[in-house]
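In response to reviewer comment 3 from the previous cycle, which asked for concrete evidence that the modeling workflow produces usable outputs, we include below a single protein chain processed end to end. The sequence was submitted unchanged, and the resulting structure tokens are shown without manual editing.
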Amino acid sequence: MKKILIIGAVGQIGSELTMALRNIYGGENVIASDINNIASEKLLKSGPFEIVDITDKNSIVSMIKKYNINIIIDLAAILSATGEKNPMLAWNVNINGLINVLEIAREYKIEQVLIPSSIAVFGPGTPIECAPQETVLHPTTMYGITKVAGELVADYYVKKYNLDVRGLRYPGIISNETLPGGGTTDYAVAIYYDAVKYGKYTCFVKEDTRLPMMYMPDCLKATIDLMQADFSSLKHHSDFNVGAMSFSVKELADSIRKYIPNFVIEYKPDFRQAIADSWPNAVDDTAAREEWGWNPSFDLDAMTQDMLKVIGEKHKQGLI
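The workflow returned the following structure tokens.
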């Protein structure tokens, strides 16, 4: 049976990916870890949880030995907006932490490493209308710089050491389980919470800002599908574009108004507008579709219905 270590398991993606993988492989076989113990009760009760600092190599090695780990998922990251406030922290976690994971994988013969990337790798020179799989990568944020470097380093380990390393460029991820964690696309999550709680939202980017987005169920599906793909069938490895939907903030607000007619939004763009403007409004994910069968399930209105239903129930129960 596979033994999977997830580093960064209490974040937006990690908290839900952990549960999804435990449903597949069994709770005892998926070890959740993070730098601090702020995990949900559900996550803590469903399987092992450990404190791991990705910047401390010995911290990771101890988990490899304790649980006989053969798959590592590295979700530890300082995201775009937070990374601009503390660039060296972003570099230390995103790059030095990644090197720790890859070196451990090489030394301990780990079967597979999954290291997600992001649309933050794109920047000036990337086609705005639809970013190709192979294109100019000139990011304007430290987060984006670390993700480009991470893709290149991961591919180096594939070619140099024949290590099975995989990754996909996440678009903005929207979920109803965990609150945003310092990313530029956080508005697409916060808007739903504020719509339910207050009936209004103040957005930090302009109404015509359009970015690639994905609902969490599709994010989990993409991640697990890539993990389970035949490595020999992959021509790319650490940099797959994955798309699901693209919409402007105005289109998102209009979708919400179909279910909350009196919803009000105002716009007060801040420093995150420049980051959003540097990213494409869609991605070409032909490689992911052809190499491992990627196919999303949710569109904007289907996501909005589900988000408002789940968040509405939480609000009624006093959980938010």
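The first strand starts at residue 4 and ends at 7. We consider this sufficient to address the reviewer's concern, and the full set will be provided in the supplementary archive.
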